[in-house]
Design a protein that fits this description.
Blueprint lengths: L4 H26 L3 H6 L6 H28 L4 H4 L2 H22 L5 H9 L2 H38 L4 H49 L3 H12 L12 H12 L6 H4 L11 H31 L12 H9 L2 H39 L6 H23 L3 H22 L8 H21 L9 H19 L7 H7 L2
Length: about 500
C-alpha cells in the first residue's frame, strides 16, 4: 500500500472534488431566492449548525496554516488555538439569541441588515458591509492559498514540478462552481460530513505524530529544548507580548467573525443555541489536535535530521501526511482538509457577495441589485478572482494572512455587534467611528509594513482602539431611543 500512497491520496481528493460538484448541483435545486443563497432558508438543525460553526473557525487557517506556524514559531500559535474555545462561549452568550431574533423580526438576510436595524443607521450598514468585504479578501485569500499549497504538494509527487499559480487556478475553479451553484446551503451540508471526518482523522493523526518521533511527545520536547528552548516555552519564539495579543484578539475576536456569527441567524429554532455551543466546542477541541501535533512533530523531525528542512512553513501538514501517516489516513485527511477549506471559503464568498449585492447598494441607494440571486452569483465569481490574485501576491504564510483577516473582522465588528447588541447606550456614531478607525489602523499597518514592537498583533491594537472609541463616544453622546422591537430583543 505504501507504494501506492500518492495514488490513494489522489483518488481520495478526486472523489471529494466530485462530491463538491454533486453537492453544488443538489444545493442549486434548493436555492430559489437570495434568502436561500445567503441564509439557507433559516432552517438548519443543531448538528448541521454546530459543525458549520466549528468548521468555519478552523478550516485551512488551522489545518494548513496552524502546523506551519508551530513549525516556524514553536508554541506561540497555541495562544490562537487554545483560547478559541473561550471565544465560542463569549460569542454564543452575547449574540446567539439576539442575532436569531433580529433575523426573524426584521427579515435580515445578512449581518449588516441586523446592524442597520439595531442602530437605525444606513452608514452603519455601509461600514459593516465594507469591513466584511475587506476582511473577506484577506481571509478568502488564506483559504485559496491553503488549498493551492496542499494541491501543489500532492500533484508534484505524481506529475513533477507544478507552479503555485496553476494550483490556485484549479482550486479557484472548483471553489467557484461549488459556491455559485449552491450558495451557503452547499457549505453547511458539506460541513456535516467533513466535520465528522476531521474529528476522527485529527485523533488518528495525533497518534501518528506521537509515533513519528522516538520517545513520542517527550522525545519531541527534548529535541526542541535542545535546539531552541524558547520554541517549546509558554510564549514560543514570538514572545510574551505577541502571544498575549493573539490571545486577546482570538478569544474576544471570535464574536466579530461574520462567517461564524451569521450562522447563528440560520437556525431553525431560537432554543437551538444552547445545544449548538457544546457541539461546536467539542468538535473544535478534538480537531485542533491536528494543528498542534503535526507542527511539533515536523519541527522535531527536521531537527533530528529525519526530514529535510521545509522550503516553506506551510508545507508542514502536507509533507507530514505524505511521509509519516498511513496512506489511507493521509488520503482521508487531505480530502477533509479540502472539505474544510471549501466550506469556509464558501462562507466568505457568501458574506462578501451579500455585502456587494445586498448591503452596500441598500445603504447607498435604498435597494439591492436586482435580480438579487443572479447578481449574488456574479459577485461570487468576481470576489473569488480578486482573492486568488491577492493569495499569489501576498507572499505570506497562510496562518499570518488568516490572522490579518481575523483581526480585521474582530476590530471592526466586536464593538458594534458583540457589545452594541447587548448595550442599549451604544450609539450609531460610536459604532461608525469604531469601524472606520479599525480599518484605517489595520490596513495602514499592513500597507506601510509597520512592525509593532515586541511582536504585538496589529489586529489586537486595532481592536483596543476601536473598543476605546466605541465606549468613549457612546458615553459622551446622548442616548438614542430604540425601536420597540429592538428594545424588546435587547431586554431578553
Amino acid at each position: 500500500m505504501e507504494a501506492q500512497r500518492n495514488t490513494i491520496v489522489l483518488v481520495c481528493v478526486g472523489l471529494y472534488l466530485l462530491l463538491c460538484v454533486a453537492v453544488g448541483l443538489w444545493a442549486m435545486r434548493r436555492t430559489h431566492s437570495a434568502r436561500d443563497f445567503f441564509m439557507a432558508g433559516r432552517d438548519l438543525g443543531i448538528l448541521v449548525t454546530g459543525l458549520a460553526v466549528f468548521s468555519s473557525t478552523l478550516s485551512g487557517f488551522g489545518f494548513v496554516g496552524g502546523p506551519g506556524l508551530v513549525y516556524r514559531m514553536g508554541t506561540s500559535s497555541l495562544w490562537m488555538v487554545v483560547c478559541s474555545s473561550m471565544g465560542f462561549l463569549i460569542a454564543f452568550h452575547l449574540l446567539a439569541k439576539r442575532l436569531r431574533l433580529f433575523a426573524e423580526l426584521r427579515e435580515s438576510i445578512s449581518l449588516p441588515d441586523a446592524v442597520a436595524a439595531r442602530y437605525r443607521s444606513e452608514p452603519a450598514r455601509f461600514l459593516t458591509a465594507l469591513a466584511i468585504l475587506l476582511g473577506v479578501m484577506g481571509y478568502l485569500a488564506t483559504q485559496i492559498l491553503a488549498m493551492a499549497t496542499v494541491l501543489q504538494d500532492i500533484l508534484q509527487r505524481s506529475f513533477g514540478p507544478i507552479g503555485i499559480e496553476a494550483c490556485v487556478a484549479m482550486s479557484s475553479a472548483v471553489l467557484v462552481f461549488y459556491c455559485v451553484t449552491g450558495g451557503i446551503i452547499a457549505s453547511v451540508y458539506t460541513d456535516l460530513v467533513q466535520g465528522f471526518v476531521m474529528m476522527v482523522a485529527a485523533v488518528l493523526v495525533f497518534f501518528a505524530a506521537m509515533s513519528a518521533v522516538d520517545g513520542g511527545f517527550s522525545g519531541m520536547t527534548r529535541l526542541l529544548l535542545a535546539d531552541d528552548p524558547e520554541s517549546i516555552g509558554p510564549w514560543g519564539t514570538l514572545g510574551m507580548v505577541g502571544s498575549l495579543s493573539w490571545y486577546f484578539v482570538f478569544a474576544l475576536g471570535l464574536a466579530g467573525q461574520p462567517h461564524i456569527i451569521t450562522k447563528m441567524m440560520m437556525t431553525r429554532r431560537l432554543s437551538d443555541a444552547k445545544h449548538i455551543l457544546p457541539v461546536s466546542i467539542a468538535a473544535y477541541s478534538v480537531s485542533a489536535l491536528l494543528w498542534i501535533s503535526i507542527g511539533l512533530a515536523i519541527r522535531a523531525l527536521v531537527i533530528q535530521g529525519t526530514h529535510p528542512t521545509l522550503e516553506i512553513s506551510d508545507a508542514a501538514a502536507p509533507q507530514f501526511l505524505q511521509g509519516y501517516a498511513h496512506p489511507l489516513l493521509a488520503g482521508v485527511v487531505f480530502a477533509g482538509l479540502f472539505a474544510a477549506i471549501m466550506s469556509t471559503a464558501d462562507s466568505f464568498l457568501n458574506i462578501g457577495a451579500a455585502a456587494v449585492v445586498h448591503d452596500i447598494p441598500r445603504a447607498v441607494r435604498g435597494k439591492s441589485l436586482l435580480p438579487e440571486l443572479l447578481w449574488a452569483r456574479i459577485a461570487t465569481v468576481v470576489i473569488a478572482a480578486l482573492a486568488s490574485v491577492l493569495a499569489l501576491r501576498s507572499g505570506e504564510l497562510v496562518a499570518l494572512l488568516g490572522a490579518f483577516g481575523w483581526g480585521t473582522f474582530a476590530a471592526a465588528l466586536v464593538p458594534a455587534v458583540a457589545i452594541g447588541f447587548n448595550w442599549k447606550r451604544a450609539h450609531a456614531t460610536a459604532a461608525n467611528v469604531a469601524i472606520a478607525a479599525s480599518l484605517v489602523i489595520n490596513f495602514g499597518i499592513k500597507f506601510w509594513g509597520i512592525a509593532l514592537p515586541w511582536g504585538f498583533d496589529a489586529g489586537a491594537l486595532a481592536l483596543l482602539v476601536s473598543l476605546t472609541l466605541f465606549f468613549g463616544l457612546s458615553f459622551l453622546l446622548p442616548q438614542r431611543r430604540l425601536d420597540p422591537d429592538v428594545e424588546a430583543v435587547m431586554d431578553l
